[in-house]
Batch of 2 targets.
Target 1
Amino acid sequence: MTEAIRVVVTGAAGQIAYSLLYMIARGEVFGKDQPLILHLLDIPPMAGVLEGVVMELADCALPLLQEVIPTTDPKVAFKDVSAAFLVGAMPRKEGMERKDLLSANVKIFKVQGQALNEFAKKDVKVLVVGNPANTNALVCANYAPSIPKENFSAMTRLDQNRATSQIAAKLGVPIAAVSNIIIWGNHSSTQYPDAGQGKVFINDVWKSVTEVLNDTSFLQGPFIDIVQKRGAAVIASRKMSSAMSAAKSACDHMHDWWNGTAPGKFVSMGVFSDGSYGTPKDVVFSFPVEIKNKQWKIVQGLTIDGFSKSKLDITGNELREERDEALSVLESN
Ligand SMILES: NC(=O)c1ccc[n+]([C@@H]2O[C@H](COP(=O)([O-])OP(=O)(O)OC[C@H]3O[C@@H](n4cnc5c(N)ncnc54)[C@H](O)[C@@H]3O)[C@@H](O)[C@H]2O)c1
């Protein structure tokens, strides 16, 4: 039998983890033949809730799940893990300034970066979901110098899934008939959802979304707005933030990183920027990537028109500002 891999989920007593743990333990990320040992990390006040999650995982009677290790100690949580879903973060409280939120999270991700550096496998794949996800991933990587920077990523797959779903609905085609919709930049309201490289499968051929749709005002207006504000719309309706869809997207992200992307297909991931497409270097920026042998590569050579360039600049500037604020918090600690 294949040897089990260790996978950590932080924020394991929270609402995203409640859906995510089940999906991982069913084999939807690492495969139906890959046994797992799940490490569940949360903070001490949540230890009781964590016990309930452990009971439920046991009661699911999942054949791939060899062991579940609940803990409030990062040293235990990150020991020998091959994959890390960093979901736990400090939520924004009423009246909290952006800087205070960033400051609280920078500290969490510093500690977790240090623990990954010391205890995780050196080829661990790290997906940061907790917000501000891009800058948290940057901080985490900076404190884990023994792990390659390429192994750290931030989640924009939920935004990609939302955007793909909007395009499929607009075209009246099944979701599987739409591909290569891109999210550029930050997982925030400055993100740029871009259907310009999108493909749609109609009458047995892949065609350009922009040509088939022929509606630039929609693609440059309501489409971007809907995707940027979708999280707020879910909160307004559900009175809680997106959890099921966030969990599914975290699975999609890690699944594709682990297993690769099909030829010609690309997906969006927040990764270390090398300055491609005129973006700032050394921020975690969401790009279209292709993945082979567990290594992502930024898709090159796409045409960026003036409209797209201005959108990339806005979100790139925000990421630069976040990075500088995070660094100033770290220096003053
Ligand atoms: N990137 C994305 O697309 C995306 C989408 C949705 C949500 N999010 C973010 O994901 C995060 C989690 O969302 P949720 O709905 O599950 O929130 P939640 O409040 O239900 O759960 C968060 C959990 O994290 C725990 N936690 C806090 N600090 C921790 C630490 N230092 N170590 C371990 N655990 C810690 C909390 O105790 C809590 O159990 C939030 O930051 C949210 O903004 C990101």
Note: The pocket of nicotinamide-adenine-dinucleotide is lined by residues 10-11, 13-17, 41-43, 46, 87-91, 108, 129-131, 133, 155, 158, 187, 241-243, 246 (CB under 6 Å).
Target 2
Amino acid sequence: MHRARIALQASTRTGNTERFASWLLNKPQAAAATVYANRPKSSTAAEPFLNGSSSAYVETMYNNWLSDPNSVHASWDAFFRNATNGAQPGVAYTPPPNLAPYSKNEVPLTSLVPASGGMPSISAGSPINEKIIDDHLAVQAIIRSYQARGHLAADVDPLGITTAKLPALGMRAPSSELIMRKYFNFDEADMDRVFKLPSTTFIGEKEKALPLREILNRLEQAYCNNIGIEFMFINSLEQCNWIRQRMEPPNVTKMSNDQKRLILARLTRSTGFENFLAKKWSSEKRFGLEGCEILIPAMKQVIDTSTRLGVESIIMGMPHRGRLNVLANVCRKPLHQLFTQFAGLEAEDDGSGDVKYHLGTYIERLNRVTNKNIRLAVCANPSHLEAVDPVVQGKTRAEQFYRGDNEGKKVMSILLHGDAAFAGQGVVFETMHLSDLPAYTTHGTVHIVANNQIGFTTDPRHSRSSAYCTDVARVVNAPIFHVNSDNPEAVMHVCNVAAEWRATFHKDVVIDIVSYRRNGHNEVDEPMFTQPLMYQKIRKTKPVLEKYADQLITEGVVTAEEVKDVKDKYEKICEDAYNQAKQETHIKYKDWLDSPWSGFFEGKDPLKMSTTGVVEETLVHIGKRFSSPPPNAAEFEIHKGLLRILKARMEMVENRTVDWALAEAMAFGSLLKEGIHVRLSGEDVERGTFSHRHHVLHHQKVDKATYCPLAHLYPDQAPYTVCNSSLSEYGVLGFEVGYSVTNPNALVLWEAQFGDFNNVAQCIIDQFISSGQAKWVRQSGIVLLQPHGMEGMGPEHSSARLERFLQMSADDPDYMPPESPDYEVRQLHDCNWIVANCSSPASLFHILRRQIALPFRKPLILMTPKSLLRHPECKSTFDDMVEGTTFRRLIPEEGPAAQNPSNVRKVAFCSGRVYYDLLKQRREKNLEKDIAIVRLEQISPFPYDQIKAEIAKYPNAQLVWSQEEHKNMGSWSYIEPRFRTLLQNQKHIRPMSRSQTGGWFSQLFGKAEAPQSDQTGPHTEAVPRTISYNGRATAASPATGSKAAHNKELRNLLEEFCVL
Ligand SMILES: Cc1ncc(C[n+]2csc(CCOP(=O)(O)OP(=O)(O)O)c2C)c(N)n1
Ligand SMILES: [Mg+2]
């Protein structure tokens, strides 16, 4: 035990505290103190005692006393005074005057000293034996040890094998003696001694002191039984106490007979469902829940309690395991609909569909327990484990936002996880880190881990380095409840506490249901190949339903007949649904939609797009607001550099011109005016990576005083959100996708810092954005803004990998859609996403507005500029944006070449910023009459109709595609086959010169051959025109790291562009 040295040097008062701590711990001699049962805290000095170990406590007391003797209890004051005055061991202590009678539940220290056993008795004014102090401190340390480390010895594993970090298979977790009773110096004789309980424990309920035996019993019950709790790392004393209060009192997990019957009934359904599927479709993969059937009652318990506490809508995300069971028994999706998924029927509606254990659903129903209406949605998800987590959070956030549920009282999320995926997938961490950010919080998520202690064929000891699969949750101070799945009542208690925690603190919480997987990874897998011992154990383990039914029969809560009756009834329900499913001839993907947009499609012409031009007055109003400091706030001090930017903006508005940032603001502002919510999220988006946007102005003198002009355009405008995100792509893009699918009347944009970084979110792009509608009939109008362009910034700040997006565009390169008046919208309707690389601010304005003008929603992948943000030529005028103007998928040549098209010798098609390089080069080489430049503002869907017209306009010109990216990147691989299709389909066919074919010479040397006086050679029969390539050569890296090499490459491509 720690003892204070008696002879304190006077200088210690002002000396450093380290020295005090070291002698306190290392040179024990004597100490004396007193303990008063629950004496009200008179100073802050009392608090560390409640939390810390005894050494920290004594040390803190001493330090407090050094700085102010009045800040500690009088007993400590007396002790330290005596000690510093050289009092002998055991006599430094002087009891303080008893100022008031003991209040209720206070225990005088004298009463804690055994009457016999050779211990000295205490009377007022007499020195106290230090053993009493030591023993009390030891008891408190033991209590704290249970609270902090009890989970390590808890019996949470229904198989009785151990977790990853703990010893070999077949051993129970180490005993609590080993782990908690480090300070245990007591023998049997001490067991009946009464010890005062600190106010940081609730094991005593109303008792303030208990015999040691009872203290240990209660601690064992609370912390080392079937629930293991990790919470002592939480920084809030209030929150720690809240948990202790709910977990420590004896019998907290006791349930009423009605509750027990409800658990049994739910367990019967959960088990019955899997049994039924196993019986009917024995060789179908369904990723059954066997071994963790308690998951269903657990989820229902969380839902019941949350609904009771006010939640009306729950959004859930989960992996494959037990998903069908959740849909059937938690969401109560009609069973026959589920069963038709096994029948291999064709779909009645569009889409390529998904496997049954990935589908989502949405259901509104009455919660019979709380008698309240509740909406439940399970988000569709891909195989990619945990990828759905941020999507669920985004959807939850959006639902809270639209309902005005600013504290998350009405809408919440539940995320289910597998143990291996929860520990292994980084997106879990990224999602957790969104949990408390102002623009991303969902005000607490209940995480439930179906911890079957295995991931496919891999044991925990090979799949994670942390002790628990849940350790990631510690970073956000979430309490973690590990619970044995074979104790249904403990599971339900934990679920109640978790739901209450979420409702009270609006923070994340984790329920780790430690269970097992009765079968292989799926139903046709053999687990004995890889986990023989574990599966021998599993084979001998009775299903929890049987165990619990036996328990309730023994307790007299139910009879064996009742158990059988409930089971038979559910089987009959399944059988009826099975017969009903047999009548079905088709499945409907729409039945599996997780966010129906009721009212959005109804009564709409599916091919009618509204206009995107707006009246000039609106442009002027938005432009002026966007260029002004906060109105009526002269004291709002803006940075001088920003004032210059605002001034330049205002001048542009006065000149009826716009740059990129102004065009973007006008697109947002005009949509906000029309009642469309706009949300822009991503790293540093408020200012903009390139310092061009400045949507949030910061007061230079007042912290957190900001002004967002776009949020204050019109009194009745829709809300505008612009938010800097955490430094995450996977998590944040997933979040915004979830946000975007919730309500079609919103423009949701995610901006990459540089387009290069989008590949960190590749899974969201591949699994949700490009294929989401095809798999799940779920539309999203999300916009990805991706700074892109070869500007000599090196391999990682140049390319947004345009080629990848184009490669995933689902339009057939060999098929040219027939021409029609609604060509544009028809193509957009049929595509999986839109890929564009706009060159003008007006194009940006229109394409953003078109997202909302469409009668459906499509993702938009937009390459955005960097240097063009300040390029003097990259401007548009109001004339390109006012009423009557639209988005131009293609911007034709409008200069001299267009005046005399038959003389034009080359038409260069291009997209994005390279246009400005080509323009400059053409000007410098005086080729404005010879070369026409045509810009594809939208690359995919491919504007065949407009390209065709351009080609026809220049009958004598060779066709080239000019791009700045390397040949195996950029648009070339996408546009080349489509040009071929178009040219082959074209009526206008003319003989070609060899130079037009971009033949062997140009391919070898990157240059065209010398022109051959329109000579057609010996083979003059009509062949289709072709398009040749003008751009950088192929490469492995997207861009060179050398500025010189970059410039040389650019020079080459521009020279080649000028070769006629
Ligand atoms: C990102 C990702 N990587 C790999 C897989 C393949 N896979 C499917 S299930 C599984 C094991 C998952 O284990 P766990 O998370 O514990 O869930 P369980 O199947 O045990 O319920 C793996 C590796 C996947 N679906 N997603
Ligand atoms: Mg697992």
Note: The first strand starts at residue 194 and ends at 196.
